[in-house]
Amino acid sequence: MSGPSASEEEAHYHGHRARLRQRLLQAGPEALSDYELVELVLFRAIPRRDVKPLAKALIARFGSFAEAIAAEPPRLAEVEGMSEGAIAEFKIVEASAQRFAKGVARKRLPIGSFSAVIDYCRTAMAFDAREEFRVLFLDRKNGLIADESQGIGTVDQTPVYPREVVRRALELSATAIILVHNHPSGDPTPSTQDVKMTLDIVAVAGPLGVAVHDHIIVGRDGHASLKGLRLI
Questions:
Q1: Residue 52 to residue 60: CA distance in whole angstroms
Q2: Most buried of 26, 31, 81, 144 (most Cβ within 10 A)?
């Protein structure tokens, strides 16, 4: 007995795509698994092929939807079936998520919700392959003046200069800052160097009227707050 014809297979995956889109719109993203969300992203770049096996391969390789989307292009290209167009779609989704989170943070601040800050920080950098140090500069009402990257380093180290951080705060007329960096290993536990660097910034900032509200470390496995851990 012969298998389904090419036209029957095409009708099948077109029907699958329509059902998946409908479930997203009617029940929301929580109703879809990670690989199904990856499928939805792949639909635009690969219109005439069943992308479920590729979506499952990406989740198996990277671990989750967020980690697959945030993976660097050379690593994505290592997965068989990932075209340049598909990789571009992933980077569009990643950039959109970061822009959206930044826009929401600007609208929601003054910072009244610690969870909103954590969500923003994790979206922006928790899945990056290299360590990055950022500073959120705040005004007297804890409104967000600016979110700036102060440096991108290696997989486990970023050079940070306390006087440069405080100098920038004074330039922006910021009265408080929140320090943020990521641990590409996934484990957000602060290192001895993380604590020392934070205390160095506190020591420089305090006499100049700039408060350090917190230092938040994010990673795939969660987050850590130095203030919450009573390390500052």
A1: 12
A2: 144
Contact between residue 186 and residue 221 where contact means Cβ atoms under 8 Å apart: yes
Whole-number Å distance between alpha carbons of 64 and 36: 11
Residue carrying the six token digits 């939805």: 40
pLDDT tens sequence across 102-154 = 665 555 455 555 676 777 777 777 777 788 899 999 988 888 888 888 877 65
The predicted model scores a pTM of 0.59
| DSSP codes of every residue in 169-186 | HHHTT-SEEEEEEE-TTS
Per-residue pLDDT reduced to its tens digit, 158-201 = 678 899 999 999 999 999 999 999 998 889 999 999 999 999 99
Q: What angle do CA 28, 223, 66 make, to 5 degrees?
A: 40
Closest CA to 221 of 189, 194, 190: 189
Enter the tokens of residue 6.
Answer: 């090419």
